[in-house]
Amino acid sequence: MIEQHLSLLLVVIPLIAAPVTAMLPGRRLPWLFTLSVTWVCLLLASWQLSVVMNGSVISYELGGWAPPWGIEYRIDAMNALVAFIVAAIAAVTLPYALRSVEKEIPEYQTSLFYAAILLCLVGLLGIVQTGDVFNLFVFLEISSLSSYVLIAMGKQRRALTAAYQYLIMGTIGATFLLIGIGLIYAETGTLNMLDLNQRLQPIMEHRTVHTGFAFIVVGIALKLALFPLHLWLPNAYTYSPSVISVFLAATATKVAVYIMLRMVFTVFSSSLVVLTSYMFLVLGIVGVILPSISAIFQTDAKRLLAYSSIAQISYMVLGMGFASVLGLTATLVHVFNHALMKGALFMAIGAIVYRVGSSRLENFQGLGRQMPWTFSAILIAGLSLIGIPGTAGFISKWYLVLAALEQQSWLITGVILLGSLLAVIYVWKIVEIMFFRPVPETVIEVREAPASLLIPTWVLVSANLFFGFNTELTVDVAGTAVRLLGVTAP
Question: What is the pTM for the complete model shown?
Answer without folding.
Answer: 0.90
